[in-house]
Amino acid sequence: MDCSAIPPYIRPVTGAIAKCLGFVVLLPVVAAVIFSQSVPATLALIASTLIIEYGAAPIGIGLGLHPVFVLGVLTSVALGIILFLFDLFDTLGRHSDRVGRFLARSEEKAKQSELLSKYGIYGLVPCVLTLGFYVCPPVSWVCAWRRDYSILLTMGGYIAISLILILATLGLFSIIFP
Predict the structure, then answer these.
(1) 61 touches 170 (CB < 8 A)
(2) Whole-number Å distance between alpha carbons of 101 and 97
């Protein structure tokens, strides 16, 4: 097979997938081994986090994982997905004329709104609380907000709600199982 037949977007997409798998699976499993946590419980927590996001915190606690470890796994999975989505959208924007035009139009519309361009990025915190970490990267990418601030605000909101849920779960479990 001729190497020139490979589409140019394959390499960045492959890199994005590898980075995602590193954060979502590899890092939590290695941490589970290092910190003597159950690997099957960690894999169950990862799968739960991919489905119900920060709602997986009680599952991790219920599986007997340490609360700090649960927070670390939730954070690692969320960060892996967020970075993957940003990389995927960047690749789409570079290699698709249609997506590139859409992005340019969206960026112009976002810049026309003074309120959205000045304060819109802060909406990522309540967005991650209500809609989840799958929604924040597309919103910030379409609005052309700074990636580093977007990731920081999204992860800050996600870690805060995860921590609150872990603390609530620990309190609830201590009442139910004294």
Answers:
(1) yes
(2) 6
Domain ranges of the chain: 3-176
Which DSSP letter does residue 159 get? H
pTM to 2 decimal places = 0.87
Whole-number Å distance between alpha carbons of 154 and 128 = 6
- Give backbone dihedrals phi and psi of 43, rounded to 5 degrees, phi first: -65, -40
Angle, helices 67-95/39-52, rounded to nearest 10 degrees: 50
- Distance, CA of 80 to CA of 18 (rounded, Å): 10
Do the beta carbons of residue 18 and residue 38 sit within 8 Å?
no
Contact (CB, 8 A) for 63 and 41: yes
On whether the CB atoms of residues 159 and 77 are closer than 8 A, the answer is: no
Q: Cβ(132)–Cβ(52) under 8 Å?
A: no
pLDDT tens sequence across 107-146? 777 667 776 666 788 888 888 888 888 888 988 888 888 8
Residue 135 tokens, joined: 């929604």
